[in-house]
């Protein structure tokens, strides 16, 4: 297909997608127009206008198109800013994973396009300190008078600004999580109460917490982890009885050997 799709379809497909998004044209109308102009199959032309809508809306995309087509549409979305581009890249990666599962064979080229735009947005991102800053700002706001808080609320915008952040995350072992959850059998290993609710698939909802934090050099092992309810999990991160360096509690203290 890469040899039969003219680059002009990238532009025309993008413009058609904008028409559909704005309600100025129907899917049937733009499909018929593109088929007539390019002489290609409906599924082919659909790929080159529906991809832009999928990137904008974050919806699943199951067509196949060449890497340059994705590059063209991502470049257009990049003009909308780094937040819009990051959301589009998440949708794009979901599509790449889908193709890999279907053994379509063109995902290596798509990975290169994805990496290209990830590098482009890194210069626009900041490190993720927003949570720490917000906690301090909340404490300051609570210390102010009711009159000052009321005035600030009246002046503040109701829709928060979006900001792209860089975060460091650990790639945790799913087998450690599975073993800890199975060991807990739906009972919080801190407060000993049943999980507060069940997931859509029927599993009790508990969160796996590392007794010695991964950030502090703790091991991602079953012996260094417990399954806790959301309330106990938050307490272990923010409660007065727990230090920032970790729980200070060994696995044997909570009966999870």
TrEMBL record:
Gene Ontology MF term list: endonuclease activity
Keywords, in A-Z order: Endonuclease, Hydrolase, Nuclease
CDD domains per UniProt: HNHc
Domain of life: Bacteria
A Pfam family of this chain: HNH
Entry keyword annotation includes GTP-binding: no
Protein name: HNH endonuclease signature motif containing protein
Annotated HNH nuclease domain residues: 176-234
């Amino acid at each position: 297909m890469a040899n039969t799709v003219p680059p002009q379809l990238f532009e025309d497909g993008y413009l058609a997608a904008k028409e559909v998004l704005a309600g100025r044209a129907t899917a049937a109308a733009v499909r018929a127009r593109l088929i007539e102009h390019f002489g290609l199959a409906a599924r082919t032309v659909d790929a080159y206008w529906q991809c832009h809508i999928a990137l904008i809306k974050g919806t699943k995309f199951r067509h196949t198109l060449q890497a340059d087509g994705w590059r063209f549409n991502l470049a257009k979305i990049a003009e909308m800013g780094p937040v819009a581009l990051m959301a589009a890249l998440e949708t794009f990666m979901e599509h790449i994973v889908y193709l890999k599962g279907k053994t379509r064979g063109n995902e290596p080229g798509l990975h290169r396009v994805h990496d290209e735009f990830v590098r482009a947005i890194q210069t626009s991102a900041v490190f993720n300190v927003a949570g720490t800053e917000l906690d301090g700002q909340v404490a300051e706001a609570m210390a102010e008078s009711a009159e000052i808080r009321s005035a600030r609320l009246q002046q503040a915008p109701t829709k928060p600004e979006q900001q792209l952040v860089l975060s460091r995350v650990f790639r945790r072992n799913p087998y450690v999580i599975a073993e800890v959850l199975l060991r807990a059998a739906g009972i919080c290993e801190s407060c000993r109460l049943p999980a507060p609710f069940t997931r859509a698939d029927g599993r009790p909802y508990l969160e796996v917490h590392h007794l010695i934090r991964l950030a502090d050099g703790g091991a991602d092992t079953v012996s260094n982890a417990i399954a806790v309810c959301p309330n106990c999990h938050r307490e272990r991160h923010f409660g007065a009885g727990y230090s920032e360096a970790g729980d200070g509690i060994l696995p044997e203290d909570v009966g999870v050997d």
